C-alpha cells in the first residue's frame, strides 16, 4: 500500500510517504523554507510528490492529522469529519482530491496521530500505555491511550491539571515575559537548572483556578495576579525558582498519573511511551525512567513535526492491520548531491578538499568548531549528527562560543553532547542509552565541562557504529584529546530552522567563526 501522510495545518507541518510499510520519504516544511514552525504544508507536499522515489500517481490512501487545511486536501465531508472528531472519534474515513483524482482518505484525530507514533517507537507492544501531552490538541491537552489486542484505545482525555501539561509551560513562559511561540517552553525549561523549588511558588501554582485552561478571562486574571507577586518577579534568580518549582510539580503530576495506569508485571512495570511536545522535557523523561525502572519510548519527532508520520502509521497499523517498519531518525528529506555541495562551497569562496577524518579530529581537538552535514537530515528538533555543529567540551569557552556567539542563543541554555554507545556503556554501566538525545545524565565535575549544565547534567546522545563517519570521528577525537564526547548542537543560525542543504549551512555560517565545513565526502576550511 502507498500512503501519503500529512500534517497540513498548524505549526511544524510536513509530509511523509509510505510504501509497503516503509517510510520512503519525509520532509518538514521548515527545512525547505528555513522558517521555524512553518505552517505552509503545500510547500512540503509539492516537494514530496516531485521525488523520484514517490509514486504520486499510485497513492492508495491519504492519511491526515487534524486540524486539516481544507484548501490543500479537498475533502467533501470535512465538516462531518471534524464533528465526529470533536465528539471523540479516533478517525473518519472519507475521500479527498489529489492530483486531479479522488483518493481514499482517513482523517486521524491529532492526539491519536501522536499516540500512534509513540506506540510505534514502543514496538506496538500489547499493554503499552501512551501519554500524549501537549499545549493544545484537537480535543484535549493531554490524553492517555493503551495498545490492546492490536488496537489503539483512547483511555482518558485531559487527566492532567494545567500544571501537568504543555499549556502550563506556555503559561509560565508568558507569565515570565517570554511570549507564546512554540519555542517558548524549551527556552523556559532551561532556567530550572539554576534554581531550587520554592514551597511558596508551589502553593501559589496549586491554588490557581482550574478554569485557567478553558477561559481566557480567567487566564488573564491569573496571569496579572501572579505577576504582581514578588515570588513571580522577572529577575533571573526569581524566574529560575519559579521554573524549578513548576518542573518539580509537572514531573510529580505526570508520574502520579502514569503510576495509576502503567501495568505492574512480575518483574516491574509494563511498557510506556510518551508523545506530544511535553515529551521533549528531558528532566521529566529521565525521572520517569528512574522511578519506573525501565526504558521509556519517546519518538525524536514527538511534537507536531511527528504528524508527517503519525497518521500514516495509524492508518497502516491500526486500520489496515499492516506492519510498519521501524523509522530511521535520519529521514528528513534527501542528502545533498556532491555537485550541489561543491557549487555551494564555490559560491562562498571556499576551497573543497576530500574528507579527512584525522584533520577534522585535529581541528576539534585544537579548539575549532565544525559544521557537519551528511545524508538525509534528522526528523524532529534535535541535532543528531547529520545537521550538527560540533565542538570540544573540554576547551574553555566553547559553550559560550557555540551557543551565544555562533547561534546567538540565551546564555543560560545548555548544550547536548554525542558519545559512542560503547563508551557510554563503560561510563554509565547498566543505564539506558539515549539515541535521540531525550534524557539527561550526571556528568562528573571536570569531565566535558563545556557540555555540563549548571545542575551537573548533560543531555547525551548515544551513537552506534551504524553511523560510521561520526562514530569513527568520535574515536579519533578521543584518542587525540582524551575526551569521550563532542558538543553536538543543531546546525542553524539565529532564528532560523535547522539547515537542510549545503547552501543553507553557508548562508548561516560562511561568515562566522566556524572553522571547518564537512559536507559528506568533501570539506573546506573557512577563509582566513
UniProtKB/TrEMBL annotation:
Q: Matching Pfam families, A to Z?
A: Carbam_trans_C (PF16861), Carbam_trans_N (PF02543)
- What domain of life? Bacteria
Query: Which CDD domains does the entry link to?
Result: ASKHA_NBD_NodU_CmcH-like_N
User: Taking every annotated instance into account, which residue ranges of this chain make up the domain Carbamoyltransferase C-terminal?
Assistant: 362-525
Which residue intervals define the domain Carbamoyltransferase in the entry? 104-310
Protein family according to the UniProt entry? Belongs to the NodU/CmcH family.
Would you tell me the protein name for this molecule? Carbamoyltransferase C-terminal domain-containing protein
Organism, per UniProt? Streptomyces lavendulocolor
